Amino acid sequence: MGRLAGKVAVVFGGARGIGLATVKEFLAEGATVFAADIREPAEEIPGYSVVDATDEEQVGAFVDGVIAEAGRIDVLFNNVGIHLGKSLVDTTLAEFDNIFALNVRAAFLGTRAVLPHMIERKAGSIVTTSSNGGVMGRPGDPVYNATKHALVGLTKSIAVAHAHQGIRANTVNPGAIDTDMLRSTLNSPEEFETKQHQLVASTPAARVGEAWEVAKAVVFLASDESRFINGVVLPIDGAKAAGAMPGNRYSLDFELGVR
């Protein structure tokens, strides 16, 4: 029997990358999954809906529909987000507002819609995708990192407020993961291969992670195996957030790790 057998899971941001990988893992572990994204999925997903996760009415209607069909929600995975690789002084107000709307508002709306149902049942696991930029400073994307810190604060506060009601809230905090979002920061598919050394020059593991590696962690946090784990911020980044490396490791000619 799967680790999520009998559980009902909602995934916002399930069309690509970590979201799609997690949908697959949830299904493989026996969950009934209702996935949503503003885009059509990269491949067919049962129970999928096109939903703008920043729209209050759409999110509410989607969650109400899940409750009407499945009767409950055991797991919520908030995975909506975009990247913004700009310095603070180069970031416009419109870009600031847009990234907070996507990265923070979406998680707020999804959690607010699902939380009352979990409180009523006195059970539920909420997992939110933050970033290792949510636990450390990074010079290249400060406003993006601010949104990811906000998600950590929101998650910890939910955990403290609702732990006595059987509700858990945790974040996964990926580093460089081979997804569409990461590759979209490059000019071509070929550039990903040639610039891996730059991507991992500050990563102790000396490699880029895979989406399924994050998805496996989400399954664990969604499952009863982690039922006393609450308010945790879990970097999945090859030890980058753990601290500074020896100075001679910050080089582009370091041999890439085995993937």
**What does the main sheet amount to?**
7 strands, parallel
Give helix % range. 40-55%
- What is the CATH homology-level superfamily? NAD(P)-binding Rossmann-like Domain
- Supply the number of helical segments: 8
Mean of residue pLDDT? 92
> What share of residues are in beta strands?
5-15%
| CATH architecture heading | 3-Layer(aba) Sandwich
CATH class division: Alpha Beta
What is the rounded Rg? 18 Å
Whole-number total of structural domains = 1
Helix/strand class: alpha/beta
Poorly predicted runs of 5 or more residues = none
Structural write-up:
There is one protein chain. The protein has 259 residues and is an alpha/beta fold. It has one domain: 3-Layer(aba) Sandwich (Rossmann fold), CATH 3.40.50.720. The chain contains eight helices and seven strands. The chain has helices at 17-28, 56-70, 93-121, 142-162, 180-183, 189-194, 196-200, 211-222; strands at 8-12, 32-37, 48-50, 75-78, 124-129, 167-174, 233-236. A seven-stranded parallel beta sheet has the order 3-2-1-4-5-6-7, sandwiched between helices. Helix 1 links the parallel strand 1 (8-12) and strand 2 (32-37). The two termini are 29 Å apart. The model has no long low-confidence stretch (mean pLDDT 92).
List the helices and strands and how they pair.
Layout: E1 8-12, H1 17-28, E2 32-37, E3 48-50, H2 56-70, E4 75-78, H3 93-121, E5 124-129, H4 142-162, E6 167-174, H5 180-183, H6 189-194, H7 196-200, H8 211-222, E7 233-236
